User: What shape does this take?
Amino acid sequence: MKHLNTVPRPSQKRIALYVKPAAERALRAGHPWLFDQAIRHQSHEGQPGDLAVVFDGRRRFLAIGLYDPQSPIRVKVLQHHQPATIDANWFADRLQAAADIRQPLTTQHTNGYRLVHGENDGLPGLIVDRYADTLAIKLYTTAWLPHLPHLILGLTSVQPFDRLVLRISRNIEALTAQHGLGDGLILSGDDLHKPVIFQENGLHFGADVVHGHKTGFFFDQRENRARVRTLSTGRRVLDVFAYSGGFSVYAAAGGATSVVSLDASAPALEEAKANFALNPTHTQHQTLLGDAFDWLEQLQADKQTFDMVIVDPPSFAKTTAEIRPAMAAYARLTRLALQVLEPGGLFVIASCSSRVSPGVFSRAVTLAAVDMGRPLTEVTQTGHPLDHPIGFPEGEYLKCIFATVH
Assistant: This one.
């Protein structure tokens, strides 16, 4: 691929690292990260993507991974316990293992899903999302640049594609630009001037895989959307933080009488309208543009109520310091949502903050409901779908509560 002609080639000289006892224990347990502060000796300096071999205090092999001198996570571990040659065959085997996990989705009228979920699939700092015949690769570290040719070769054999799009995390955009690579670059296939259409549980959606948030769609909520579909018959539904209308479309497909999609992004709501057009129903659809907190207060003042309220906010706690305000935000959203929810209605609220545990999240939501005199009866609490496996503690982030309200 011509766009990859300027990326550096992997160094033939591996870096030897010796680490502190706590890091030895973590690596033996299979943790995918080695932090810079855990390194007690290093053979030589390296470039992003050089292979680093980690040894214990007795010079025994612990792990091998991608060296990243620009990150406090100095090594993204590819292989634990046993030495390995990291080449095209290794990448093909790891990609095939990831594809095998997702195989059940291909029998469910679904061709849009996460094919590689970073560390949790043994490929730290790398995301690969499938949108029908288009694949989107997202990089969170420049350590992947020297290995892109081998990675793409593996993708070609495991999941053939017509188009390959490169997405770049903001934190490394300036560094990748030095190699002529930018966010949204099409590495292979025709240019894109419209959304890519894909299928999920028999429904159709469009995604802007070149400019859209993340890679264009949130696949992690697929199973929760499907649950909403089974519960929405005859209900008036409010979808808060609707983005491109995933939950909204599923609610309409399930027989909701009306759906209101609320989001602060005008382009996202236009995508929601387009997704409704891809899945015609008799459901009345309305969009509300603006801040979710403000709109919920306004709806309550206008005495508008709903039979189902879905709240799927962005991550409120990206750092430890943000945990406390995040919990306050979840509690406030719960109170505001319940103010516009009819007695006996269904409340759905999710959190994608990895720093907030399922138990802490559930308690915050439950207590907020009790405090306002509208206790919840939990129907179920869900976690990750199969294409977002959890491979280490920090990899768990998604939780969603389904509950009825008194």
About this structure: The mean pLDDT is 96. Residues 221 and 385 are 8 Å apart (CA to CA).
